């Protein structure tokens, strides 16, 4: 969630945010406060909803504005991996291709990821990549993993849940 607060003054006002619980919100693993007045909540939970207060202050005084955040239930997970994708069409900008011709011939002989190496990008395209990792010993109680990624075009974080027995995304 991104909350925006714009303040204009001379000298330039400093913007701060206060949570519905009355705490000053700053940079943390869950939130980023930007100098332009934007507060970005990277992870929201239903209990995070309520009235956030924007406080803009400078030597001339202080002004406040309220912003209400409503957090609904999370959307169902959207799973994607190499087994659920349609084969690429020739000329498709999203078509995945091996990083090099040598990788292509090796891939034909061994379709799985190398077991002695860590996480690898085995194929890539203009807007997609195939990430693979070696089989790991099962960890009792772990049913899903979360993958986080973003696009350099907009820096919006995307989270995906994948089954623990998956070996590619």
UniProtKB/TrEMBL annotation:
Keywords of the record: Cell adhesion, Cell membrane, Disulfide bond, Glycoprotein, Immunoglobulin domain, Leucine-rich repeat, Membrane, Repeat, Signal, Transmembrane, Transmembrane helix
Gene Ontology CC terms, in alphabetical order: cell surface; presynaptic active zone membrane
Biased composition regions of type Low complexity, renumbered to the chain: 94-110
InterPro entries per record: Ig-like_dom (IPR007110), Ig-like_dom_sf (IPR036179), Ig-like_fold (IPR013783), Ig_I-set (IPR013098), Ig_sub2 (IPR003598), LRFN (IPR050467)
Protein's cellular compartments: Cell membrane
Region described as Disordered: 68-119
Keyword Signal assigned: yes
Protein's membrane topology: Single-pass type I membrane protein
SMART domains: IGc2
GO biological process entries: cell adhesion
Pfam families assigned: I-set (PF07679)
Chief site of localization: membrane
Domain Ig-like: 1-70
Record flagged with keyword Coiled coil: no
Family as reported in the entry's similarity comment: Belongs to the LRFN family.
Protein name: Leucine-rich repeat and fibronectin type-III domain-containing
Organism: Neovison vison
